[in-house]
Design brief:
single chain; 315 residues; alpha/beta; Rossmann fold; nine-stranded mixed sheet; 9 strands; 35% helix; globular; disordered C terminus; binds adenosine-5'-triphosphate; P-loop_NTPase; iron-sulfur cluster binding
Length: 315
């Protein structure tokens, strides 16, 4: 998919990989046009970030995408976590991305349901269990090409799940996707908060506006006695939001059903079950909708998961 030389070709007239500067410039301009076209009909682009791994970023991305789709919006979900793509597994989707003969070779995303389109960089890989060892320029080029190749159509929201930290993937999303906004997910304990400050500073450096901070795994409601135990403490995410003068979007408690449902491919937070976690998540969703309101495009919704083959049909 990406050129073997990545984007590191020198300024010499003919680069190491044998292409001329002019040919590279033309290819880059063509890619830039394709990116503009691919993203042109998307109202809100949201990069879900975390300073630290395992804080629930993919869980929040998937639940956010599903929750907005359930509210009648057209939503896209893009997983650019090259090293640990989890979105496909959390939604229990199968299938592969193929260029469409009728759409000028562009790649249509897979449909989870009528309102939710999903793509993962994982779909581009032949062997999904193979570890990927790519250097920065190649990753950046792969993500740019991935965005350029997609045919999203009209979307109210595009949710982008990036790997934790402030490495090549969030950087290439920030540089490739104009007007992308960030949501930062953290857990409440100090070690996570130290890393979240780096994410916030990263956004400032690359001029990405932050829509707000979500505190995940904030207290555990015991299913037996209904008492809350603050395993990772609570309130740290809100404190960091205050420190940086950012909106606090809400806190989601720990709930073992989130783990089980994530493993089974049936996301829990956006489900219709009533619990402290689903109620908290509904509040987070509302806060995001309030801050990033698109014009609502009324579309009928097939809530059941799609067949995943890309036809838009259901199981
Ligand atoms: N509020 C919660 N309560 C209980 N478990 C949770 C909660 N949020 C996420 N989890 C679980 O924590 C684990 C890590 O979540 P997830 O994969 O979403 O994190 P991540 O930040 O995307 O991780 P990575 O660093 O690998 O990208 C998963 O097993 C998930 O089900």
């Amino acid at each position: 998919m990406a050129d073997s030389c990545g984007s590191s070709c020198s300024s010499a007239k003919t680069s190491n990989c044998g292409t001329t500067r002019e040919a590279q410039d033309a290819a880059l301009a063509q890619q830039e046009n394709a990116i503009t076209r691919s993203l042109g009909k998307i109202k809100n682009k949201i990069l879900v970030m975390s300073g630290k791994g395992g804080v629930g970023k993919s869980t929040v991305s998937v639940s956010l995408a599903l929750g907005l789709a359930q509210r009648g919006y057209m939503v896209g979900l893009m997983d650019v976590d090259i090293h640990g793509p989890d979105v496909v597994r959390m939604l229990n989707m199968k299938g592969s991305l193929e260029p469409s003969a009728t759409a000028g070779g562009l790649v249509p995303p897979l449909y989870y349901n009528d309102n939710l389109k999903v793509v993962s960089l994982e779909y581009m890989l032949k062997d999904r269990d193979q570890a990927i060892i790519w250097r920065g320029p190649l990753k950046i080029q792969a993500i740019r090409q991935f965005v350029a190749d997609m045919d999203w159509g009209e979307l109210d929201y595009l949710i982008i799940d990036a790997p934790p930290g402030t490495g090549d993937e969030p950087l290439s999303v920030a540089q490739t996707i104009p007007n992308v906004k960030a949501i930062v997910v953290t857990t409440p304990q100090k070690v996570a908060l130290a890393d979240v400050r780096k994410s916030i500073n990263f956004c400032k450096t690359v001029n990405v506006e932050i829509t707000g901070v979500i505190e995940n795994m904030s207290g555990f409601v015991c299913p037996h006695c209904n008492q809350t135990v603050d395993i990772f403490k609570t309130g740290g995410g809100e404190e960091v939001a205050r420190e940086f003068d950012l909106p606090f979007l809400g806190r989601i408690p720990m709930d073992p059903r989130i783990v089980v449902a994530g493993d089974d491919g049936t996301p829990y937070l956006s489900s219709s079950e009533e619990s402290p976690a689903t109620k908290a998540f509904a509040g987070v969703l509302q806060a995001i909708e309030n801050r990033l309101p698109p014009v609502k495009t009324p579309v009928s919704l097939n809530i059941a998961g799609g067949c995943g083959c890309g036809c838009g049909g259901s199981n």
